[in-house]
Amino acid sequence: MRMKDEATDAKPSRWRHVAFTLMAGTIRVVFLIGIRLVYSVRAVHAERVPACGGVLLLPNHVTFADAFFLSAACPRPVRFVMDEAFIASPVIRWFTGIFGTVNIRREQPLEAIREVIKALKKGEVVCLFPEGQLTRTGTLCTLQRGFELIASKAGHPLIPVWSDGSWGSIFSYERNRYFKKIPRRNAGGIRIAFGQTLAAKGVDARSVRDGIMAASAEAIAQRFARQKFPQRRTSINGHQIGMINALQRRRSFHMLKGDPFVDELAGLTRGFAKLFRAKVRIHDQFDPHDGTPWVGSDFLREKIFSAPTSSQAFAFYDFGTQALVPFERSDCAHYPCLAIDGMVVAMSMPDPPPGIGVDPQHGCRANSWGKLLPGWKISIPPSGAPRILGPAADADGLTLPHGCHLDDEGFLIHA
């Protein structure tokens, strides 16, 4: 009698499981179709995702909706690694059930790694955000090292991924806040670029960072594929500037008449200004009266240095040859930047406020030109100076200043 009762109890349980699986699959398909349409999500090199077998996706992390964007672009179902602390809400728990997340506990890292390896060995596509937090600068944060152990233990390939175009949504930290802002449509939608596959053996944070940045270049190149040079280079560089939290979209910035950078920085003065409705104001003389940021080179730096101190604080984005020389002025926030052949390569920016329960992020650092912009990747040849490659440069790339390198946080440092 007991065996009969147990069989009777198991039958409804199996039917409930089948019903939930069918319902979850239907909701997932309909939901992701809606995401593709609303956000114009497009995949770049989706063919790099193998048709079968376990694979670990390692994308940048810009918004709270990244999992949905990536699911909409990936040709195979994706299981996302999520901390159990985030699924206390019944609604979130319901969504994680539908999307089959791999739930882990941050305080039990070894158990978390075992769960990810188990999913990979079952032949599933697993996504782990290697930064471990959302970016509040728009640029790539320091990569956490857990994926290295996963790669060595599981032995499955890794694919770096870049999500381009989501900085600016209400789910990102653009405008220095999440959610509480008016939604703005990002022209061109969102591009999810799947990078070149990395073998598990010998993979490290540097190779993954390089792979993610290479994917960023491919994503941005595809976005502007139909434009012709030189307009294409100008638009691409303007888009790169708009994907970070330095100069703000739909805000003005000042430049000084007579500064050669007014004409040289086409990506800034024409590309960024046009794409993101930022107004360039050219002035006959330096005056920090309204607190609007100033952008320029040594010409502007000299004018600022010789002007009397103002009661109005302002920011100075310094592209000059002396940008790395400390600029002591109580009313000025000095942000060193780097442009090569008229293309903006790296920019410093204000430090974002610290987040709760996450590692600190920085927007500027001593002896640095700032963070490398999305869409650039560094190439170090066996001999000669390192070069920077990307769709905003010619095929040969741009020659970096002698002795500079990229640190683990993505800052371009002068040695």
Description of the structure:
This protein is α/β, with parallel strands linked by helices and 415 residues long. It has 2 domains: 15-223, no CATH class; 231-414, ANL, N-terminal domain (Rossmann fold, 3-Layer(aba) Sandwich), CATH 3.40.50.12780. It contains 10 helices and 19 strands. The chain has a 7-stranded mixed sheet, sandwiched between helices. Strands 10-11-12-13-14-19-18 form a 7-stranded mixed sheet, sandwiched between helices. A 3-stranded antiparallel sheet has the order 15-16-17. Helix 1 packs across helix 2 (66-73) and helix 7 crosses helix 9 (266-275). It starts with a helix and ends with a strand.
Blueprint of the fold:
Layout: H1 2-39, E1 41-44, E2 55-59, H2 66-73, E3 78-83, H3 90-99, E4 102-104, H4 109-121, E5 125-127, H5 146-154, E6 158-164, E7 190-194, H6 205-223, H7 231-242, E8 253-256, H8 261-264, H9 266-275, E9 280-283, E10 294-296, H10 298-306, E11 314-318, E12 332-340, E13 343-347, E14 368-372, E15 377-379, E16 387-389, E17 398-399, E18 404-406, E19 411-414
